[in-house]
């Protein structure tokens, strides 16, 4: 018998942008499905009408798109399936797994106050649980599930292991509010069932919910999905990741200029491991990712590790693909688009720009010599390195550059010979030369810049600076 096709889902609430923890949850679901030829579905849990906005939904879609997490089919709306959720609650009423509760808020509050006074459980025990329909008043009611009152329930979780919950800790949770609208806890289960979800991979803050949602699966006789509750992400101080730790949203990391491939690699490794592997490709991640590799302890977000991984990904990226992502970064952050000349120049310079760049702002900073135009403005340190002595030496270089073969070896050779003739070292001459070519004291290798700029532009920049 063939194994059922894997179906995972990511189900964010559009009450804010895509949090980095949500991004990792989506990534784990995506990797698990894609690595097994399965489906990765997207459901927008928009039942909180007051806080759900179209702008937040779009921000979530944009964040997933930036991360390269493609989903199958169109995103579905939880709110749009309300009629189906109500239908299931009514079916549970009909089969005796749910009941109508006519208790008022005042009565429930009084029950809880008495429980606190008597130091007993504050879980509400409705007196309407076993009242026959014939004895129901003509008053507003909620629909509650009938939770077992004794014994225990054990759920097997792929990350947490076997987790047991005493049934006396389960309340008869509400399924339909007094206005007839379904609650989130019911909607999640119905949606997962109807969408054919086989694996629910989500944060371990939902573990308690799993026991309550399990009541609905049992009441309806539905197959239960495999559960995997993953630990939360902590900041460096060991507390839940929040704004006080810096950026927390996927869009913020895009705006900071981290490459998507590096972000995927880092988030995959955050709480999951494959031996000692730290740096890996998307193909390796899809092949290796499994639920058994997820740790039980919260993972700590480390910006230095993120930067290190991103730097490695920039270094191995194809130049054209990297330039395409760089242009997307400029667009996303509202910066000027590259001119065709700048585009070609950066592409030509990309091998030297990639070296030791961890983010796109760093790469753009290195590309200053391509992006700027004559006459160059020099920063203070660059201007200081270009004294009259070095201006004189560089003036001698100009005629030699007119005829030299334009290759790294030849260029390096004539500059080294010139330095020797003036009883100095090549490194001492590189600073002033860097200043006239880039206008900065820090840049790629002077010979890399000369090769990118070409003969005419190199000579013109030297002449501008030396008079």
Automatic annotation (TrEMBL):
Q: Which reaction does it catalyse?
A: tRNA(Glu) + L-glutamate + ATP = L-glutamyl-tRNA(Glu) + AMP + diphosphate
Residues spanned by motif 'KMSKS' region? 240-244
Under InterPro entries, the record lists: aa-tRNA-synth_I_cd-bd, aa-tRNA-synth_I_codon-bd_sub2, aa-tRNA-synth_I_CS, aa_tRNA-synth_I_cd-bd_sf, Glu-tRNA-ligase_bac/mito, Glu/Gln-tRNA-synth, Glu/Gln-tRNA-synth_Ib_cat-dom, GluQ/Sye
Q: What is its EC number?
A: 6.1.1.17
Q: Which residues form the Aminoacyl-tRNA synthetase class I anticodon-binding domain?
A: 325-465
Pfam families on file: Anticodon_2, tRNA-synt_1c
Origin: domain of life:
Bacteria
Give the chief site where it resides. Answer: cytoplasm
> Which residues does the record give as ATP binding sites?
243
For this chain, one GO molecular function annotation is: ATP binding
Q: What class of enzyme is it?
A: ligase
GO CC terms = cytosol
Where located? Cytoplasm
Sorted alphabetically, the Gene Ontology BP terms of this entry are: glutamyl-tRNA aminoacylation
Motif: 'HIGH' region; annotated at 12-22
Q: Provide the alphabetized UniProt keywords.
A: Aminoacyl-tRNA synthetase, ATP-binding, Cytoplasm, Ligase, Nucleotide-binding, Protein biosynthesis
Q: Which residues form the Glutamyl/glutaminyl-tRNA synthetase class Ib catalytic domain?
A: 6-307
Q: Which family does it belong to?
A: Belongs to the class-I aminoacyl-tRNA synthetase family. Glutamate--tRNA ligase type 1 subfamily.
Q: Which PANTHER family match?
A: GLUTAMATE--TRNA LIGASE (PTHR43311), GLUTAMATE--TRNA LIGASE, MITOCHONDRIAL-RELATED (PTHR43311:SF2)
Query: What does this gene product do?
Result: Catalyzes the attachment of glutamate to tRNA(Glu) in a two-step reaction: glutamate is first activated by ATP to form Glu-AMP and then transferred to the acceptor end of tRNA(Glu).
Subunit relationships: Monomer.
| Protein known as | Glutamate--tRNA ligase
Organism, by scientific name, is Octadecabacter temperatus
């Amino acid at each position: 018998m063939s194994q059922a096709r894997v179906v995972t889902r990511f189900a964010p609430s559009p009450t804010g942008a895509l949090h980095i923890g949500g991004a990792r949850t989506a990534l784990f679901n995506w990797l698990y499905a894609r690595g097994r030829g399965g489906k990765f579905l997207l459901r927008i849990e928009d039942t909180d009408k007051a806080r759900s906005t179209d702008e937040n939904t779009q921000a979530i879609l944009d964040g997933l798109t930036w991360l390269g997490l493609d989903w199958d089919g169109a995103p579905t709306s939880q709110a749009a399936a309300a009629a189906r959720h109500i239908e299931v609650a009514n079916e549970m009423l009909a089969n005796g797994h749910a009941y109508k509760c006519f208790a008022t808020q005042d009565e429930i509050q009084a029950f809880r106050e008495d429980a606190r006074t008597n130091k007993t459980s504050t879980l509400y025990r409705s007196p309407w649980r076993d009242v026959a329909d014939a004895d129901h008043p003509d008053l507003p009611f909620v629909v509650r599930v009938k939770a077992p009152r004794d014994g225990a329930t054990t759920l097997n979780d792929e990350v947490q292991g076997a987790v047991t919950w005493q049934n006396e800790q389960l309340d008869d949770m509400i399924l339909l509010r007094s206005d007839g609208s379904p609650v989130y806890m019911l909607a999640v289960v119905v949606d997962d069932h109807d969408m054919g979800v086989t694996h629910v991979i989500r944060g371990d803050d939902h573990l308690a919910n799993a026991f309550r949602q399990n009541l609905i699966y049992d009441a309806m006789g539905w197959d239960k999905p495999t559960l995997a509750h993953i630990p939360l992400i902590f900041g460096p101080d060991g507390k839940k990741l929040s704004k006080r730790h810096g950026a927390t949203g996927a869009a913020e990391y895009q705006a900071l200029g981290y490459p998507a491939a590096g972000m995927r690699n880092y988030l995959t490794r955050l709480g999951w491991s494959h031996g000692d592997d730290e740096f890996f490709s998307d193909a390796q991640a899809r092949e290796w990712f499994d639920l058994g590799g997820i740790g039980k302890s919260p993972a700590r977000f480390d910006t230095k590790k993120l930067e290190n991984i991103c730097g490695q990904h920039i270094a191995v990226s194809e130049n054209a693909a990297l330039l395409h992502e760089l242009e997307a970064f400029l667009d996303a952050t509202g910066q000027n688009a590259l001119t065709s000349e700048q585009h070609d120049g950066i592409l030509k310079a990309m091998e030297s720009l990639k070296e030791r760049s961890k983010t796109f702002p760093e790469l753009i900073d290195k590309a200053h010599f391509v992006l700027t135009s004559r006459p160059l403005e020099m920063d203070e340190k660059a201007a200081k390195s270009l004294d009259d002595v070095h201006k004189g030496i560089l003036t001698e270089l100009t005629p030699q550059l007119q005829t030299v073969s334009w290759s790294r070896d030849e260029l390096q050779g004539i500059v080294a010979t010139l330095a020797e003739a003036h009883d100095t070292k090549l490194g001492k001459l590189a600073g002033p030369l860097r200043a006239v070519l880039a206008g900065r004291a820090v840049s790629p290798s002077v010979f890399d810049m000369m090769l990118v700029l070409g003969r005419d532009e190199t000579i013109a920049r030297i002449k501008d600076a030396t008079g």
